[in-house]
Amino acid sequence: MQKTSTASQSTRRTIIRRSAAGLAGVAVAGAGLTALSAPATAAPASSWDALAQCESGGNWSINTGNGYYGGLQFSPSSWSAAGGSGMPHQASKAEQIRVAENLLSMQGWGAWPACSAKLGLYGNGGSAEVTTQSAETSSQTQEAAPKVEKKQAAPKAEKKQAEPQQQAPQQQAPVQEERASAVSPVEKSDETITVQAGDTISKLADAHGVDGGWEALYAANSDTVADANLIFVGQTLHLPA
User: Among the residues of the chain, which ranges form H helices?
Assistant: First the structure.
């Protein structure tokens, strides 16, 4: 009887150890799934706020009819390719930033060529250098211009923000002029380049020393590139003549 009791206790201990090991395996597997689904490090909110201020005057629901929508001025094709649904200007600020993070990981800050260069944003999403540079630029701007911050907090500034229809044309004028100049006729040459992963119109123009920058490269290929913010790996582009 004593041997039977000892064997029974040993069996129970074995079952308990196996159960515990199984639960530990499930826990580890669950942790692995969580790690796989975790998003990449996002750009700081201050970078998106600064970019929206440059692109649309900080109006996240803007629609002036120029073919670009929302605070970060998405074209419908870029919005859809980066995982957006519906129209950009009808989405919340958080949703616009989520889709922008996807576009950033696809094309880098060159997806917003003019404003990213103006704000000193370089590289791809999640870059510590981008985060540091953006934060330092924002901090320097705030320290160097305290009067501007005071004006933004004044009642008159708030009143202007409450009237987006009156202010929208003034805010969008530089962006619209930039889009218009990008489609001016430019003769293409026989020399071609093939789009690689991570390339943007802006990067390719800089790499090949194109006179006129990304606008000239885009204009030379406007018959095959519908959106300067959206090119594809393997696509062939002609350099301007």
Answer: 2-37, 45-56, 76-81, 93-107, 113-119, 128-144, 146-153, 155-161, 164-182, 201-207, 213-220
Residue 118: pLDDT band with limits 50, 70, 90: very high
**Residue 188 burial (CB count, 10 A):** 18
**Is the confidence at residue 8, as pLDDT, over 50?**
no
Residue where a domain stops, chosen among 181, 212, 232: 181
Q: What is the total count of domains within the chain?
A: 3
Q: Is 161 helix (H, G, I), strand (E, B) or coil?
A: helix
Statement to judge: residues 80 and 24 lie in one domain: no
Taking residue 63's Cβ as centre, other Cβ atoms within 10 Å add up to 17
Q: How is residue 60 written in tokens?
A: 């996240």
pLDDT by residue (tens digit) across 26-78?
A: 333 333 333 333 345 578 999 999 999 999 999 999 998 999 999 999 999 99
Q: How confident is the model at residue 156 (pLDDT cuts 50, 70, 90)?
A: low
Task: Report the C-alpha gap between 112 and 228 in whole angstroms.
Answer: 10
One domain for residues 233 and 177: no
Phi, psi of 165 (to 5 degrees): -65, -35
* Arithmetic mean of pLDDT over the chain: 71
Give the CA angle between residues 222, 224, 226 to the nearest 5°. Answer: 65
Do 233 and 165 lie in one domain? The reply is: no
Domain of residue 204 covers 184-240
